Amino acid sequence: MFDPSRFKPFVARTVLIGLTVAGLAAGAPEQVRAQTAAPIEMVMTDEIATSHWTAKMMDEYAAMIEERSQGRIKPKVFHSGTLYKDKDAVAALGSGAVHMVWPVSVQLESIAPQYGVVNLPFAVTDEAMSKPETAKEVAKLLSGLVADKGIRVMGLMRTADLIFLFKDKEVDSIGDLKGSKVRLTGGRVLQSLMREFGASPVSMPASEMAAALMQGAIDGIYTSAGGWEMVGTNAAKVASLVPGMSLLTYSVLVDDKWMKGLPDDLRQVVETTTNEIVAKQWQRAIDADKKTMDQMIAQGGRLAVAPETERAKFREIATKVNQEYVRRYPEIWKQYQSIVGNKS
């Protein structure tokens, strides 16, 4: 005969277990619930070749983010402009299509002309930017200039002292630039500078530089040692340096809305990891720049350095270009000078 009382303990235990599981799920700590959630995608992009040290550093950074977040953030890195060119990637920040991009800082002038303060000739120095507090304050100033675009500037990274690349011509004086079509990374400040030197600035993607130089579409390129490596000594045999004139930087940009939407612990992972890699990157970039330059010379390239007497003339014209910026944005210039401690 069926006896329901025999099953009461079993039913009670089942109900109790079910309630306990439900209760644990409802009241579980944040980290327990987070572990069961789908990973958060972090799309990162650049237009640099995978062989460039910056691309390798982005891969290193992405791996650190995934490891430190215990897989809760899944970075997806797109190099060589395979997803977006840097300019388009910057415009896509805030749309959800891109979450982080490291463009050269001159790209930001198109959306915030005041950003040109870090692109002014002789304005950025290794001495100032190697100081963590100075670098942090500069990033804060720049971030305020693009905040209305939904962009946060998390720091600046060093690229290199820019050099002129020509097929076989040295740039020893300003006169060597007159009448030349020179490819730039973009930006109003550098364009103004080249025009003052008597050159015609040309903008084009890095991937097209070598072909344009070899075919005569341009006469020269103003770029970094890494850019020389991309172009090769077959296209550009001679590199010319005006020491201290242009220290190019990358801006580490993140979608501010995406950052604010992260759980507190994951936002801290991104912020801490970014600050860490930015802090150690500056010296690494100096070392990498020298290594690349030595390699290019070993491959048959030649480095020419403008003589001291000519550097003063370059600086004189550069000061004129700077004053144009100062007239337009005196407060930003004043704030920047107070941060970096420049006397000029």
Automatic annotation (TrEMBL):
InterPro entries, per the entry: DctP_fam, TRAP_DctP_sf
One GO BP annotation of this record: transmembrane transport
A Pfam match: DctP
Keywords associated with the record: Signal
PANTHER family on file: BLL6794 PROTEIN, PTHR33376
Name assigned to this protein: C4-dicarboxylate ABC transporter substrate-binding protein
Lineage: Bacteria, Pseudomonadati, Pseudomonadota, Alphaproteobacteria, Acetobacterales
